[in-house]
Amino acid sequence: MHKRVTYSSVWLPYLLVLPQVAITLVFFIWPAGQALYQSVLRQDAFGLRTEFVGLENFIDLFQSDRYLDVFLNTILFSAATTFSAMGFALLLAVMADRVIKGASVYKTLLIWPYAVAPAIAGVLMWFLFNPTIGFAAWALGGVGVEWNHYTNGTQAFILVVIAAAWKQVSYNFVFFLAGLQAIPRSLIEAAAIDGAGPGKRFWTIIFPLLSPTTFFLLVVNVVYSFFETFGIIHATTEGGPGGATEILVYKVYKDGFVGLDLGGSAAQSVVLMAIVIALTVIQFRYVERKVQY
């Protein structure tokens, strides 16, 4: 039986949700509306003259080979970051779920990196992989890999993926570990009695039962890789070399705040927002069908 909550005042429920509604309006609806409005305008660098140009900013975007290259970079970066962060976090969660001695210390150490700001994560990786002073670059040189992300676009791309995935692993780890601990041990023990090995038990019992957690993290990680990795790229490569690590959110900043193309930058932000909304809808429309609640 469900207990229905009643309030002494008719206005009390609305007052309780008012702070969240206000935050949504101020920090999402209003900026999104401003971006949509500015995307159909063309302004000079000082904002002294404004001209309505309709969809010209969007047409210029999709006629630009450079923008299409950045678009492809973003898709590859998002896919690589999402699957790397989720895959490694799942592996760590499975290992942590089996640890007996020192389990709390082990789990705490794995969670700590989430407290690191994206820009700090980028700086850490910059130091580790610096071709002159970096330990990781030195270790790679010892096995015959000449690392220099300043001149090698592929290596720079790998570097920002590593930094972005490392920053997000802790977040994914917490949810995967909670999901693993919620699975009844009786199911796993029954499968073991039936002769199923560790690999078969994981893929036929554990992983399907983790599908709600996996789906939630998939949505969160895609949004993270599109929007929250600006600080990592800015601190690590600044989009270089030759734009090899430039993604859509960084191009919005570069064109708007550096190039002072306010209309074009606003159009890019609208496209970026539409892409993320479309990806989220596709995930809920098609991927969620495979989720077992």
UniProtKB/TrEMBL annotation:
It comes from the Bacteria. Residues 71-283 form the ABC transmembrane type-1 domain. One of its GO terms (biological process) is transmembrane transport. The chain crosses the membrane at residues 12-32, 70-96, 108-129, 156-180, 201-227, 266-287. PROSITE patterns: ABC_TM1 (PS50928). Pfam families: BPD_transp_1 (PF00528). It is a multi-pass membrane protein. The keyword Transmembrane applies. It is found in: Cell inner membrane; Cell membrane. Keywords: Cell inner membrane, Cell membrane, Membrane, Transmembrane, Transmembrane helix, Transport. The keyword Transmembrane helix applies. GO terms for cellular component: plasma membrane. Part of the ABC transporter complex UgpBAEC involved in sn-glycerol-3-phosphate (G3P) import. Probably responsible for the translocation of the substrate across the membrane. The complex is composed of two ATP-binding proteins (UgpC), two transmembrane proteins (UgpA and UgpE) and a solute-binding protein (UgpB). Belongs to the binding-protein-dependent transport system permease family. This is sn-glycerol-3-phosphate transport system permease protein UgpA. It comes from Caenispirillum salinarum AK4.
